[in-house]
Design a protein that fits this description.
282 residues, mainly alpha, three-stranded antiparallel sheet, 3 strands
């Protein structure tokens, strides 16, 4: 590291010498500027150059210091780790000894218990065998009865399942038929209502046509009519739109509509509309 620092110092000196040579050459070739303007930039340039030249040295010193601190921290961590491992090993050995002593104690107790249980087992073995024979016979009897009950229950469940499947199938078929009939009825009613609506508009148009008188000399072949009415057919408002004739033609259509009040009623009350729009063609 000393050689690197020496090389950095030598490099800094060389840089300063080169800068001084450049400044002297410049001063020799050009007339010197005023003294006040020259001194301050030169001092600043030299200070900046010195800081720039010494910056690698400072960085290396800082890096060396950081490495030393990191190495010291690593050694401290390793020492603490060794202490922890030694303490853990000591604790493990102590626990192992305690476990061994406890295991020996438990072994002795288990041995005593085993002898007592063996004696008790010998005394109860004969009784157990007698009871086992009796229990086996009872188990067989109960198993046979259980099989009979399960077979009967399975038969009842199968019959109930078949009845339910038949009922569900019948219900599904009836529901499908009801839906088909309802849909068919809706379509038929929709067609009837559409036909009756067309007839309703046609009746209104025909009545307006019967009450219409063409003004002398007027022109026009069609006119849009928007009518407002109340239940019963009484007209409450008329608006004529999109006429291809003159103003006299429009007024005649409007007068014919007002004269047609009350308007014809639809054959089905559901078709009644408070606002009716149609095209008047005389």
């Amino acid at each position: 590291m000393g050689a690197e620092r020496w090389r950095a110092v030598v490099g800094s000196v060389v840089v300063h010498l080169v800068l001084v040579a450049i400044l002297l050459f410049t001063m020799w070739e050009r007339p010197p500027p005023p003294a006040v303007a020259e001194n301050q930039p030169l001092i600043q340039a030299r200070a900046v150059d010195e800081a720039t030249a010494l910056e690698p040295v400072r960085r290396r010193e800082a890096e060396e210091q950081r490495k030393k601190e990191a190495l010291a921290a690593e050694k401290k961590r390793q020492a603490e780790e060794q202490q922890k491992k030694a303490a853990a090993e000591k604790k493990r050995q102590l626990e192992a000894q305690q476990k061994k002593a406890e295991a020996e104690k438990q072994r002795q107790l288990a041995e005593q218990k085993k002898k007592a249980e063996a004696e008790q087992q010998r005394q109860s073995e004969l009784k157990r065998k007698q009871e086992a024979v009796k229990a086996e016979e009872e188990t067989k009897r109960l198993a046979a009865e259980q099989r009979k009950r399960e077979a009967a229950e399975k038969l009842r469940a199968d019959e109930a399942r078949k009845r339910k499947e038949a009922e569900d199938s019948l219900k599904a078929a009836m529901a499908a038929e009801d839906a088909r009939l309802a849909d068919e009825a809706r379509q038929q009613r929709s067609q009837r209502l559409k036909h009756m609506e067309q007839q309703y508009i046609s009746d209104i148009r025909n009545k307006v046509t019967r009450n219409w008188l063409r003004p002398p000399g007027s022109t026009g072949t069609l006119c849009g009519v928007l009518i407002n009415q109340i239940p019963g057919g009484e007209i409450t408002g008329v608006r004529v739109t999109d006429c291809d004739g003159d103003i006299a033609f429009e007024r005649s259509v409007e007068a014919a509509v007002n004269k047609s009040s009350p308007l014809p009623l639809p054959s089905d009350p559901e078709l009644f509309q408070r606002e009716i729009e149609f095209v008047f063609r005389p």
